[in-house]
Write a structure and sequence with these properties.
- 74% of the residues lie in helices and 2% in strands.
- The protein has six helices and two strands; from the N terminus they run H-E-E-H-H-H-H-H.
- It has helices spanning 2-23, 40-62, 66-69, 77-117, 122-143, 156-166; strands spanning 30-31, 35-36.
- It has a two-stranded antiparallel sheet.
């Protein structure tokens, strides 16, 4: 656990620095008459994350947190199995996004996660696996006007039905 804590803090610190640097491509300050610049939120949130990782490193050095005093491994057998099952599901979700769309991949991931990992009933699994992606579709497409990946051409008839509800 001790090694995992400082490695995680280091990785998060590097990610924070990168996000701060990348967000400076936009204005990170206050623009008179407009409000915060486009990079303000990412920059300052990444800055807060960097401060937190520094605090984690200080606690690690001083050995004031329980993980910094522990010699146990980060993951036991159950933790490794869970990481592989959930991580594999997420990789499947990402791989399916370009094929069956963001919403289809979300439905498949929810089906896998709820039924096979969570061992919920088929009724609850199907209700959530169908209603949540459709709810997200209407939220993003109708309310936010943000188009998410629609996958390959064979998914088009399904989306035509949903678009006819919106328009």
């Amino acid at each position: 656990m001790r090694l995992a804590e400082i490695v995680t803090a280091g990785v998060l610190a590097l990610l924070s620095i990168y996000l701060m640097w990348k967000s400076t491509e936009l204005n990170v300050g206050y623009i008179t008459g407009e409000g915060p610049g486009g990079g303000a939120w990412p920059f300052w949130l990444a800055g807060i994350m960097l401060i937190c990782t520094v605090m984690i490193a200080i606690n690690w050095y001083r050995q004031t947190s329980p993980p910094s005093r522990s010699d146990e491994p980060l993951l036991d057998g159950y933790g490794k199995r869970t990481l592989v099952l959930v991580g594999g599901g997420l990789l499947g979700f990402i791989a399916l996004t370009g094929i069956i769309s963001m919403y289809g991949a979300m439905a498949v991931f929810l089906l896998y996660y709820l039924r096979f990992l969570g061992r919920h009933t088929w009724t609850l699994t199907l209700i959530l696996s169908i209603s949540i992606p459709i709810g997200f579709f209407f939220f993003f497409e109708a309310l936010m006007r943000i188009t998410l990946p629609k996958g390959m051409k064979f998914t088009e008839p399904f989306y035509n039905i949903l678009y006819s509800i919106i328009y």
